[in-house]
Amino acid sequence: MRIAPRINALAALPLAVLASSVAMAQSSQSEPVPGKTTTSKNPVTLNAISVTAQASHPAATTPAYPATQVSVTAAQMDDTVNALDVEDAAKYLPSVFIRKRNEGDTQPVLATRDWGVNSSARTLVYVDDIPISALIANNNTIGAPRWGMVSPDDIDHVDMLYGPFSAAYPGNAMGGVMRIVTRTPDKPEVTIEQTEALQTFNLYGTRGNYATSKTSVTASGRNGRFSWFVGANSANSFSQPLSFITSGSIPAHTNGAIPALNKVGQPANVLGAGGLLHTRMLNLDGKFAYDITPWLQAAYWVGYWSNDGQSRNQTYLSSASGVPTYGKASGFASNTYVIVEHHLMQAASLKTDTKGNFDGSLVITHYNFIKDDQWSPYGVLAGTTFTPNGLLASYAGTNWSTADLQGTWRPEGYGGEHEVSAGVHADQYTLANPTYGTRAWQDPDNVSGLYSAGSGKTRTNALWLQDAWQWAPDWLATIGGRFERWQASDGFNFSGKTAVYQPMEKASGFSPKATVRWDVSPAWRLTGSVAKSLRFPTVGELYQLVSTGSTFTSPNPNLKPERDLSGELAVERALDDGSVRLSLFQENTRNALIAQTSTLPAYAVPVTYTMNVGEVRNRGIELAAQQNNVLLEGLELSGSVTFVDSTILSDPNFVSAAGTTADGKHVPYVPRWRATAVATYRPDAAWAFTLAGRYSGKQYSTLDNTDDTPNVFGAFDRFLVFDARVNYRINEQWSASLGVDNLNNEKYFLYHPFPQRTYVASLKLKL
């Protein structure tokens, strides 16, 4: 098909904006675009239409998402993404960033256009209606989604839903909802994939090559009414340094320290590297479904994840005689540890798909930290020796459970003007986080007593109702609301010789939602959405008390829920073989729960604590486009540019010894500019060549924006990273790929030093 130059110019507009602003590169995503008018009035089919033809529509029992959504398919991922893990699938989606520090990272959190990398509880991730978000905390440690509970080869497509505009999702959806949709096997299939990655790293006094090897095996099939999928993958990974040991002064009688500053411009000389992590991970997952009748299906999911890791350090210091030494810097001890984790997730569902007047579903899940222990030496002695005693931090016993019962009523039958959905939700999150002293730090069973503790529970119950009403052929209104009741209890904190039993907290609220969509013509669509949402404090924000590396996390049991008002106006234009979307969005959040890391009097190490910030406002504009067959057959371009004015409107609780203020400052962890772009050329069915890039502007991590020193450990830098990939389908069974992430070898920090140039190669066999 020959495409008019005018249409090509429209589709390439975001790419031109990217180039002119030095922000280039985006995704193997598909944008929701207006489609041609159909004769059916069924509200279920009135979701935002994706240009990805392979993507499936939501099942009849899944409430329609009324606002902006974007999709990427498994085939697109194969062609465009150097993927070792499930979370890599979303690498190039508009305004989406997943903080993956290294191959084998256990803490990859999801950031969206409104909220940054320290807001894990402000987005939701689901696998086939099963939540894998870890709403136990709102941080970069235990708050990351449980990505390992699904195999990459199990994915059919990934949907990104922007904003809290559906009553079916809790207030944690204020940043968005990611839905990972798995495929249903219809015949026996086995896949075997071997992936190798090698990172070259050179920063401060550390230089080396860090390798990752991953083996993945999956099998699936169907026997009559019974279908199944099982997957197993193991990874052996070596990471670059995840931290550096710093000091405001140079240890006496030592050489080798590298003069440097910290993020606020104070002396922070680099004494060595830490977090050189070797991990061995195993993921086992299974999905088993039985069609009780043609319209009723029961299913069971199970996922087991284990991780064994060892972190070592590298000192740059030496004594006057040239012997390596730690200079008695305690950071070398906290960056040396052993970690063992074993987690189990189970879920069961019962769903109907009658395509009649009524449908419903019941989904129950449970996630359990069977074992989660990390032990390290308490301190350092002379030379490169540690104290014999140490600390053991454990999350064993931490768990959560969720239950969702929902139904759909179609008063005029399937394809009628109304589709009314309603549901009941319940969840409970339990935190168990003691830290023990050990007599011999390398023997975790040799416990001497309780050192500190943080524990507690939160419970939430909710009712929601939503009506998708097609009141005219070109108009769809989706109106709904969600009532939630929350309670925090059994809070307990212990430190030193002080034990505190925290008071019970309760809160409740109603969140109305409304979206109106107008298909102006077969090519144009206009969508307006507004919603309130309520996010309650996580049990981790309330009660977690733990040391992470050289940072101490302090609890705050008196937090209030944050209240959010969001709106979006989206204009979409369908092109010949492409699409363009422009979205204007704004979000005002009162009592925003924001974690702040600071140095406080009487504390020798930085302290992280969560506070309620009076009001913040995120407003901006997002431009995204996708076009196939640009200039020549087989060339696909896609790109997005997002600008966000993220401002603290009021923060009366902020106190600064330096006399600074938070009012009028930029919200922490939200970059002002973000952009992505992807160019994929498919000369034939066998080959796919991709060049992609990702740009993010400067971020702050302090409420008063005083962290303005770039390119140092602890800073949040701007970055521009390019990736390349070649994928070759050798035949129906074999495929191979070769790629490079961070092709331009950008060196940047997002607190941690991020991966430098990394080579990735894989070979896949499908039987």
Explain this structure:
With 767 residues, the chain is mainly beta. The chain is 4% helix and 53% strand. The protein has a 27-stranded mixed β-sheet that branches. A five-stranded mixed β-sheet has the order 1-6-7-4-5. Strands 2-3 form a two-stranded antiparallel sheet. The longest helix is centred in the first third of the chain and has 16 residues, at 5-20. The protein starts with a helix and ends with a strand. Mean pLDDT is 88; it is low at 1-63.
Beta-strand fraction estimate: over 45%
- Residue share in helix: under 10%
Q: Quick check: average pLDDT?
A: 88
Q: What is the radius of gyration computed over CA atoms, rounded to a whole number of angstroms?
A: 26 Å
**Sheet with most strands:** 27 strands, mixed
According to DSSP, the number of beta strands is: 38
Topology:
Elements: H1 5-20, E1 69-73, H2 74-80, E2 97-99, E3 109-111, E4 124-127, E5 130-131, E6 155-161, E7 177-182, E8 189-203, E9 206-223, E10 226-238, E11 243-247, E12 254-255, E13 269-293, E14 296-315, E15 318-319, H3 331-334, E16 337-352, E17 358-377, E18 390-394, E19 399-409, E20 418-438, E21 447-472, E22 475-495, E23 498-501, E24 505-518, E25 524-535, H4 539-543, E26 546-548, E27 551-553, E28 562-575, E29 578-598, E30 607-627, E31 635-650, E32 673-681, E33 687-696, E34 719-729, E35 734-741, E36 749-750, E37 752-753, E38 758-766
Parallel strand pairs: 4-7, 27-30
Antiparallel strand pairs: 1-6, 2-3, 4-5, 6-7, 8-9, 8-38, 9-10, 10-13, 11-13, 12-15, 13-14, 14-16, 16-17, 17-18, 17-19, 18-20, 19-20, 20-21, 21-22, 22-23, 22-24, 24-25, 25-28, 26-27, 28-29, 29-30, 30-31, 31-32, 32-33, 33-34, 34-35, 35-38, 36-37
